[in-house]
Specification:
By secondary structure, this protein is of the alpha/beta class. Helices cover 14% and strands 34% of the residues. It is built from four helices and ten strands, in the order E-H-E-H-E-H-E-E-H-E-E-E-E-E. Strands 3-2-1-9-10 form a five-stranded mixed β-sheet, with helices on one face. Strand 7 and strand 8 form a beta hairpin. The protein is globular, with a radius of gyration of 14 Å. The termini are far apart.
Amino acid sequence: MRLSRNLTARKFTVGLISDTHGLLRPGAVEALRGSDFIIHAGDIGDPEILAALARLAPVTAVRGNVDRGSWAAALPETAVLTIGDAAIFVTHNLAALDRDLLTAGFRAVVSGHSHHPAWREQDGVLFVNPGSAGPRRFTLPIALGRLRVAGKRMTAELIELEA
């Protein structure tokens, strides 16, 4: 999604969710409420989840390894959300990433797949995995995240949800 108007002066909140596997928890909806944009980093599990998220904010979503069927085939494997001067690359599995992010100009990469919420900065690029907001896997937390975008500057926040 490319926005045509100048959005560099305003601050934005991007809700981050991944690995819902067909379960959109009420706590996740509440945590994402007020987002300017939402990114779903794959393993959605049910197209109704994207419809529910779209009622909160514009959604950028990618197909995960468990997303099957005609609705999932219509989703890209990767996507880019551009907000003003900030470009965010979205993929489900970070291990499959084969792009040179620094020369491509991305400020952040959002991925899922591992169900493990984490963020780190490397060479000026913010890598964020919001974790899994769907069914609990092993002892990993149920989580999602937020990106705060101000111009080209981005900060990440991870949010653990109640089971």
